[in-house]
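Batch 3, record 17
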Amino acid sequence: MAKSVAAASAAKGASAAKRRTAKAPATGLETAQLLKAYRDMLLIRRFEEKAGQLYGMGLIGGFCHLYIGQEAVVVGVQLALGEGDQVVTSYRDHGHMLALGMQPRGVMAELTGRSGGYSRGKGGSMHMFSSEKGFYGGHGIVGAQVSIGTGLGFANHYRGNDRVAVAYFGEGASNQGQVFESFNLAALMKLPVVYVIENNRYGMGTSVERASASRDLSKNGAAWGIPGQQVDGMDVGAVKAAADVAVAHCRAGKGPYLLEVKTYRYRGHSMSDPAKYRTREEVQKMRAEHDCIDGVRHLLEQAGIDEARVKQIDDEVKQIVQEAADFAQASPEPDPAELWTDVLVEG
Amino acid sequence: MAELTYRDAVARGIAQEMARDPDVVFLGEDIGKPGGVFKATVGLYEQFGPLRVRDTPISEQAILGAAMGAAMTGLKPIAEIMFSDFLAVCFDYIANEIPKTRYMSNGQLKCPLVVRTANGAGSRFGAQHSQSVENWAMMIPGLKVVAPSTPRDVIGLLAAAVRDPDPVIFFEHKSLYATKGEVEDGEIVDTLGTAKILRPGAHATILALALMVPRALAAAERLSAEFGIEAEVIDLRSLVPLDTRTILGSVSRTHRLFTVEENPRLCGWGAEIVSIVADEGFYDLDGPPVRITTPHIPLPAADVLEDMVLPTVERIVDRVRKSLEA
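Prediction for the assembled complex:
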């Protein structure tokens, strides 16, 4: 296992079964963690599928960037975080919020633009926050959240607490200028920030090979002495193990850490992207041979978890998502008075 | 009471707030050990130490991103952007990130930070280091915009900005750093969104900001001495919130409106104020409002050229006199 996605997909001859068997032993997750990972990843998957449906029905408008395929990244990192740690990410944020324990109904109602949404319809798919759960957005400008996450780490360092900030961004964002400014600042000041590059291989419609001269993005912080690792992002156990190392590094006051998590997005960049820049076969192959949820299901089987327990989780998740979808349609439209609130504290 | 320079008032204002509140942290380029490129922050590093007064690399996006992230967790950062022209380098944070947080998060998160920056011309620094860009900030919903003209106001408005729960862009004027003014002892805290009538007058209202305030005052004295015209001079001090009550009140008494703006003419702050007065005080006006501005050109470097384009005392006197006589 721990074979990188790119390497794995290049090994065209190997059978899926063989690869799965090879995956199992290295997970390192205890059964309880495995069950939680399965539940959280499935929740994100089913939630996003439902969001896609509601979008198709015209109940969700605007942008909607689905996380399907990438679930193991945020769920794996989350398993390594503790109370008080902070998370900030881009516009592909539904999965991060669900992994942090934010209410699915509140997220879905924000997608449908209703008053029950986390931002009462003023944020939308890309802009939700939870001060309670340590979620600092939900940012629409590619790469902006990297500097903001650095600021979260700056605050932790200033306060002298042992909290760690995680800034997620895509491999597309990794070419933005403020990313490198932030790397330098964080390394210089030894700020506790885990930078997670979710390399899903396409920045909108341009493949990473065509957009980045760097072939190993985990080395992108090397100029500033930021240690980095590449991780198989389709393997939640591998992600968790790498995140453990990164978080421990930050908590020990050694400064930032960079993870390049190699993952894959099954859907288009957004709902309006038919993804014609890649072949149907490429997507099918990833889904069939490297799906992160299939992988965990297989591990649960190996760990001797009976089918009924897994089915119970499936049913529970299905119910949560249905309830979120119902809530998101029943919740009232936002009050027009909301337009004028929270612009400034006082006019 | 003591006489203080505008530059020393900046340091005193920051020190006043840092001493009061341990959540106030100050970061920027050359602000600590070097004492600031305009020597406006001398002594702070020695007084508060390297953790609270942080020299940063030349990385404007990282500075504002760091300030924003820290502010979202409840700290109250003061971030310096050395020249206001450089706001363009980090404009994403000014335009898209900092001002939108409160709104997009349904009030869950705030950005109680201050961005201090040196604005304006007069130093022959040329087109990329001399601009008056307060209108860049004024046009963005979710920001407050302040520009003091005196040492006393620097301290009072800076304190108000630091204590304000919203993000404030604080424009200091480069050509005012060496000017002096009387400042009372003890803590000074002002109120944002309050203009000051510096000179009462019955014949014309002159609105000014920052460096244009002393020029408007000098022009008013000459208008009075040479032409018997009594102009009311108002220092706006704050563009957002804007003290429309004081502006409209003055126009209702003088019936004539003049703005003296350092910014290039198109979309300068005076255009917005003229529009407000047209909406809400049209029938108080006895003549068309007149905007006295820098022309819509990049700023030149040569002294004779730079002096030619900024509004001068002579130009203000001339425009006001001719308008009232017309």
